[in-house]
Amino acid sequence: MPVDRLIASLLCDFAKLLTGVRGIWRGSEPNVRPRVYFANHRSHVDFVLIWASLPHHLRAVTRPVAAADYWLTSSLKRYLIERVFRGVTIDRNPRRDHPNPVKQMGEALAAGESLIVFPEGTRNPDEGLLPFKGGIHHLYRAYPEIELIPVWIENLGRVMPKGSLIPVPLLCSLTFGPPLPRLEGETRAEFLARAHSALLALAPPPD
Amino acid sequence: MSLNDTLLAVFGGIFGLLAVASIIGAVLKHRLSPAAPHDVIDNLNARIKAWWAMILLIGAAIWAGKVGVITLFALISLQCLREFVSLTHTRRGDHRALVWSFFFFLPLQYYLIAIDWYGLFTILIPVYAFLLLPISESLGADTTRFLERAAKVQWGLMICVYCLSHVPALLTLDIPGFEGRGVLLVVFLVLTVQASDVFQYLWGKLLGRHKVSPAISPSKTLEGLAGGVLTATAVGAALWWITPFSPLQAGLVALVINVLGFFGGFVLSAIKRDRGVKDWGSMIEGHGGMLDRVDSISFSAPIFFHIVRYWWVV
Predict the structure, then answer these.
(1) Which of A161, A166, A207 sits opposite B92 (nearest CB)?
(2) Contact residues on chain B for A125, CB-CB shorter than 8 A
(3) Angle at which helices B66-87 and B106-114 cross, to 10°
(4) pLDDT per position as a tens digit, A63-77
(5) pLDDT interval class at A206 (50, 70, 90)
(6) Which of B35, B39, B53, B302 shows the greatest Cβ crowding within 10 Å of its Cβ?
(7) What is the average pLDDT across A195-200?
(8) Going by C-beta distance under 8 Å and a sequence separation of 6 or more, which residues neighbour residue B101?
(9) Residue from A13, A192, A173, A167 nearest B86 by CA
(10) Chain B neighbors of A126, CB-CB under 8 A
(11) Is B314 helix (H, G, I), strand (E, B) or coil?
């Protein structure tokens, strides 16, 4: 729908104006190969910034993975995530009769689309990075042809921290790191630790 | 000379100089590296191009009158404060104080200039913000590095809002025999201090050998400092005819604000170095962020304001 796309592009422009976001590609280039962008998670609008800093032709094939328990709770949120951002809404604690999240994400990848995921699984109110959930490991194992790109989002958590209503107009920067290399004979825990430190390596030094 | 004729003469002169600078930049590019990128020359040309945009913007603001100048500097303050707070570390508990800074103190400070309420303008941030913001931060119940965080927010407001707001505040000064020409004080201050930055850069690039302080700024040299400050002081003295000053007074005032301007850049460089960055942002091509461009004005504007207010306002 053209109206949905117009709203998407307006929201991206608004986010850019509000946050002054600049995307810094360090070790990877924006291209259309199916990818999983994995980022630190500070606020509900994180994925909008990643989306906004991608070139136009990539936005059309990149879908955020969003939590159903937040985004499907009102008709406005449902409209935004399903129609405007074309998100893949997953159940964070799936029951047996619900669709399997890894399978849902896999369908998008198999269709040649890229995903934006937040492997911490929830918004992190503090500095640093929470331990990763296992979903990203399933994707890594099940889809050997995709690239996993770490994306560090700096400052967005400060623009609108959990529980606050008014955003302050700080500047955000997004750092896209190099694709995670594929290693043989790695355990799940080892992989998650490696992905975790690859993302943390993009963060500015703490003070 | 009427105000309009004076402004036309000054801006005509600046555009002439920029045209000459653009031609020199193009010739240098053609001579030294017509095809391949050249760091110094390309940066020089980016700076000259940005100067065209900045001078046009200032010209447009002055043409729009008092409201235009106040609005321009309020927006500059907004951008500087964004850059400052983005680069300094704040925590969740600071959010409330930041909301107050951005959406209450910043607009109010400039509104007070618009309604010419000097008494409150001059104490709003040093007194009211100074007391109220830590109260609001303490309600965040986060004591980690509390003093440091409260100080950072206050410092950002002082540098980015309070100090810079003294530029449009020049319009409120009543100087006998200089009625309605306050905007020329803005032109004098901005031109002199920015000329100092430009000449420090040029003299530094041409003659710079001895670094002032390698730990703080790798690009600031003694030769650049002396040459830049002295040349810009001459520029200030030569602009005496647009001010209420005599040529000697104009030169002395220019010297004071140029030295302060230099240290403004120096102090803010120390903060950048501490945070491990070269520029405050990327808004102005070739110059870095907004705060990189106006750090010298921030340090010189309040002193210039009070020099004029003390000696020339009755």
Answers:
(1) A161
(2) 92
(3) 160
(4) 999 888 888 889 998
(5) low
(6) B302
(7) 94
(8) B81, B85, B129, B133, B153, B156, B157, B161
(9) A173
(10) 92
(11) coil
Task: Let me know: does B295 contact B262? Beta carbons within 8 Å.
Answer: no
Nearest chain A Cα distance for residue B127, angstroms = 23
Domain range enclosing A68: 2-200
Q: Which of B86, B142, B272, B291 to mutate to test the interface with A (most CBs of A within 10 A)?
A: B86
Query: Does residue A116 sit within a domain?
Result: yes
- Which of B244, B246, B262 lies closest to B192 in space, CA to CA? B262
Q: Indicate if the pLDDT at residue A156 is higher than 70.
A: no
Percentages helix, strand, coil for chain A (3-state, rounded to 5) are 40, 15, 45
**Predicted confidence (pLDDT) at residue A1 exceeds the cutoff of 80:** no
CB atoms within 10 A of CB B160: 27
Asked if the Cβ–Cβ distance from B98 to A168 is below 8 Å, we say yes
**Chain B residues with CB-CB distance to A170 below 8 A:** 82, 85-86, 98
The pLDDT of residue B15: 95
Query: What does the pLDDT average to over B2-15?
Result: 93
For residue B84, give the chain A residue with the closest CA: A170
Q: Is the ipTM of this complex over 0.85?
A: no
Is A59 among the domain residues? yes
If one compares A26 and B97, the residue with the highest pLDDT of the two is: B97
The type of residue at A81 is I
Q: How far, CA to CA in Å, does B98 sit from each of A159, B92, B105, B140?
A: 10, 10, 10, 12
